[in-house]
Amino acid sequence: MKRSLGKKIIMLVVSVAILLIVTCICVSALVVRKMMDSEYSVTANSMAGTVSVTVDGDRLERVTKKVMELYRSADNKMDNVHQDDPGFDAYADRFMFLTEDPDYIAARDELRSIQDISEVDCVYTLCVVPEDKTCVYIVDAAYEDIVTPGRFDQVEEVCYPYLDDLTQGFPAFITDTPEYGWVVTSCAPIYNSKGEVVCFAAVDLSMNEILAKVKNFLLVLAGLLMVLTAVICVVAILYVKRSIVKPINMLSQAAGQYGHKEFNVSHSEFGALKISTGDEIEILLNSMVQMEKDIDRYIDNLTQTRELLSSARQRADDMHELAYIDALTGVRNKLAYDKEKQRLDGEIKIGMRACGIAMIDLNFLKVINDTYGHEYGNEAIKRLCGLVCQIFDHSPVFRIGGDEFAVILRGADYNNIEKLTMEFNKSLETMASDDSLQPWEKISASLGYAMYDNSTDSCADDIFKRADQRMYERKKEMKAMRK
Question: What is the C-alpha to C-alpha distance for residues 63 and 148, in angstroms, rounded to an integer?
Fold first, then answer.
């Protein structure tokens, strides 16, 4: 469906506006998210460090040893991924008595006070087992829905580089889970009074609330941008219609009227227009006015020479037919073939690769002429020509001898030459077995072809010779089969 210039310009303006909206929103979301991730990561690292230096390391060392002794002695360990497994509760229950341990209770209360003061989502301690790549929970600051000691998770892949040196802890990383959404986690080492790492202080900061606010911000931003875009589009549409569409329509109407003018009658369709846009459209109008004057001046001469040109064109067409068309078959003749070879030589010199030549020769023409007469021999030639043109309908066909044809393979014919050769031979076999045909209609022909090879061919004649040789080899083969 064709669209007017005005519609195209309006569509362009709207498309650019939409692209700017999408780009602005995407860039804003990316920048805000990057700032938010950075801010939360810094906060999580800071909070984890605060917890690690605030808690009693010796007390947590005692709790950690008790938990890890049970963890290492367990035969069937199940991480938190397997909570639905019937054996998970049995595994978790092995550690429940530790929640009544005085050291555990004191450590939990200590962590809880830090969590309440800092207003973070979760504070807990972990013991990392590098060889298993697991994090075993020691003490959780929560009073309800706690993660009991002894339960464990797999270490996040982003933390693998830090397993070789646990004194560094785990810098803040962000995860997204169905249970908790977006969470920033940071782990800092907790030391005992001897300066040894006994476990890790972990802090979780939920980003769900801030992400919701960011989403609302982006929605509001998108709404404001859409309103602004709508205003810009309306202004642009009005401007385009007044400054571009209307003047162009005026020029179009004038051109339509000028096209229906009578010969030898002066008109001033373009000269009567009043367009003062001060841009290329006004320049175009001035050019059209000058053109209108020039055409009026030349139209009389064109009218007088029209019949002479028509007659000369007809004579040229007749000469072309006589020069390049074979009188018997209506296809191009040997002269046209020689000219085509010259053009093909030029293409080969400049690097053309996809070309080939097929040679077709009518078999047993002499037998037909001697038996039934030359008139029926000509009928056989024309019948072969029709078959060649039918098979190679994407390529020019030439009659280059009495019963010899050449095809310059192009396009689909070049790409499918093997298939077309089989189709050609199959058609000949069908004719030979058709009892309704006269003997001279059951034509037999040999076909050989060759494709351009830049390692051996320097001109079209090289391709022709190889195709001609293969055609004669085919002819010998068919004569041998006939015997």
Answer: 13
d(CA 14, CA 227): 12
Determine the structural domain holding residue 383 and report its residue range. 334-482
- Strand partners for 197: 191
**CA 122 from centroid of its chain's CA atoms:** 46
Q: Which residues contact 420 (CB under 8 A, 6 or more apart)?
A: 391, 392, 413
Residues 53-103 have pLDDT tens digits of 999 999 999 999 999 999 998 888 888 888 888 888 888 888 989 989 999
Burial class from Cβ neighbours inside 10 Å (0-12, 13-18, 19+) for residue 234 reads: exposed
Q: How far apart are the first and last CA of the chain?
A: 64
Question: The domain that contains 339 carries what CATH number?
Answer: 3.30.70.270
pLDDT at 284: 75
Q: What residues are paired with 448 via a beta bridge? A: 359
Instruction: Look up tokens 């805000």; give the residue.
Output: 32
Using the 3D structure, point to which of 152, 184, 212 is the last residue of a domain.
212
Mean pLDDT of the chain: 85
Closest CA to 55 of 129, 112, 137, 128: 112
- pTM beyond 0.70: no
- Contact criterion met (CB below 8 Å) for 380 and 441: yes
Cα separation, 277 vs 264, whole angstroms: 32
Which string of DSSP letters, residue by residue, matches 438-483? -GGGS--EEEEEEE--TTT-SSHHHHHHHHHHHHHHHHHHHHHHH-
CATH number for the domain that contains residue 131:
3.30.450.20
The verdict on residue 77 lying in a domain is yes
Q: Say if residue 286 is in the same domain as residue 415.
A: no
- Which of 293, 256, 252, 253 lies closest to 271, judged by CA? 293
Q: How far is Cα 385 from Cα 406, in angstroms, rounded to an integer?
A: 10
Domain total in the chain:
3
Please check whether residue 433 lies inside any domain of the structure.
Answer: yes
How far CA 307 is from CA of 261, 265, 317, 318, in Å, comes to: 20, 20, 15, 17
Instruction: Spell out the SS3 assignment of 256-310.
Output: HHHHCCCCCCCCCCCCCCCCCCCCHHHHHHHHHHHHHHHHHHHHHHHHHHHHHHH
